[in-house]
Amino acid sequence: MKVIVDEAKCCGAGQCVLIAPEVFDQRDEDGIVVLLEPEPAEDQHTAVREAAAVCPAAAIQLEGDDA
Amino acid sequence: MSVDEQVLSYPIPNDAALDPPAEWAELRARCPVAHVTLPSGDRATLLTRYEDVKQVLADPRFTRQLNAPDAARLSADGGGVFSSEMATIIPDSGEEHQRWRRLVGKWFTAKRMNAMRPAMIRIAEDLIDDMVKRGAPGDLRAGLGFPLPVYVICDMLGVPAADRDRFSYWSDTLLNLTRYGKAEIEAAQAEFFQYMSDLVAGKRADPGDDLLSELITAGGPEDGGLSDIQILVTGMALLVAGHETTANMIGKLVSMLLADRSRWERLLADPSLIRTTVEESLRFDANSGFGLPRYLNAETEVSGAVLPRGTTVVCSMAAANRDETAFENAGEMDLTRSPNPHLAFGSGAHSCLGQALARTELQVVLEVLLRRLPTLELAVPVEELERVEGLAVGGLREVPVRW
Question: Most exposed: B86, B251, B329, B345, by fewest CB within 10 Å?
Fold first, then answer.
């Protein structure tokens, strides 16, 4: 699974950080998403899929056979 | 008569405190772009389907310029919060809006909210102690739901919580679309404005460790910061937004769980469901209020219907959240539902700035209530719960509980 985030779209809602804190963070200076782990381990996949599905700005894309 | 042959009054009258009006399902199925009459008598277009509401809320052509000359007025005495000065002074779109959003948004990150958790837990514990001291039955709305978010937002903004009764009144005049006359609303807004001006002036002279002080010390627009009037209006908007929304949601969350006590018992047995329960309560809330109005500045199409420029659209997120095409068993409250891409906080660039704060507050309240008052139950039959009328944000008048 490969994770791609779109900083321009990100609205800083923080849902991804609340759901998958090992994969996503937010910048202190403006709340915009920081991708900590572009290729998360398998035990993170469920959380990452949920984060992508609920992002209000649709700023998280997933790629790969296991996306 | 079916819903597509008549012009519905909006908000749709509904006596049931927690259940949706029957019209929603029919509108979604047969009339997704419906003509409605607002309390002002003006016409608007109501959207109830998940895909439509989600798309429109994220589409910049649907603006928040509800003060445009041909925009529908929500109520006869003005549009309350939606057409107040706040809507015009805080930039609505483009880079300006994004700059404002990022300057203020950094105060509402998930990390900051997590750091505030211990303080929120203490506030919730203290309020529950007081409720217990006063004895059962008690009103959970007045005892916990209202004060908790007010203490938290006052602390973040650096505003004295002792003045909370005044904010409550000012908020209500902005958020209540039917209760107050024009003169009363204008007088309240002028007082609120003056109060914030004095507060901002005080912080400029002697900055504290809070959101407003930091916006001031960040400098004006020439330094990448906000103008004085923008800081002032941002303070007003955050105080109002941080007030009634979560406050009402706490009462509705607890009521929904206690209305079918097997839900409460399931959480007692498995508190790890708190996070998904909070999300599901936001989705399931059939009394979330007016919805979000938008003013269309270019002709466009929604669900096959052409909407001319100048149309005022009302997005019913609550109706969209019950759309069977988006959520399996949408009419069931499923405490394990995941993912739950509900629209309670809107969608797109304008989705609720304070959503991480609201989520954290709701999770904390539920966690502390389950631990401290496991025997909690409604003290009246659910049929006796009453809605607050006329408010842009839906709520219950009282939430009588015992334990």
Answer: B329
Q: Indicate yes or no: CB of A30 within 8 angstroms of CB of B106.
A: yes
Write the pLDDT tens digit of every residue in B183-230. 888 899 899 999 999 999 999 999 999 999 999 999 998 998 999 999
B331 touches A: beta carbon within 8 Å: no
Total domain count for chain A?
1
Contacts of B351 in chain A (CB under 8 A): 11, 13, 56-57
Q: For residue B402, is it left (φ>0), alpha (ψ between -120 and 50) or beta?
A: beta
- Give the domain extent around B361: 3-402
**Which string of DSSP letters, residue by residue, matches chain A?**
-EEEE-TTT-----HHHHH-TTTEEE-TTT--EEES-SS--GGGHHHHHHHHHH-TT--EEEESTT-
B221 exposed, middle or buried (CB, 10 Å; 0-12, 13-18, 19+)? exposed
Best residue in B51, B107, B351 for a mutation probing chain A (most A CBs within 10 Å):
B351
Task: Provide the domain count of chain B.
Answer: 1
Closest CA to B166 of B103, B108, B243: B243
**ipTM of the assembly?**
0.95
Distance CA A52, CA A24 (A): 11
Task: Write the CATH number for B14.
Answer: 1.10.630.10
pTM > 0.90: yes or no: yes
Among candidates B280, B340, B286, which has minimal Cα distance to B316? B286
**DSSP code of residue B253:** H
- Give the 3-state secondary structure of residue B87: helix
Q: Quick one: residue B169, left, alpha or beta (phi over 0 = left, psi -120 to 50 = alpha)?
A: alpha
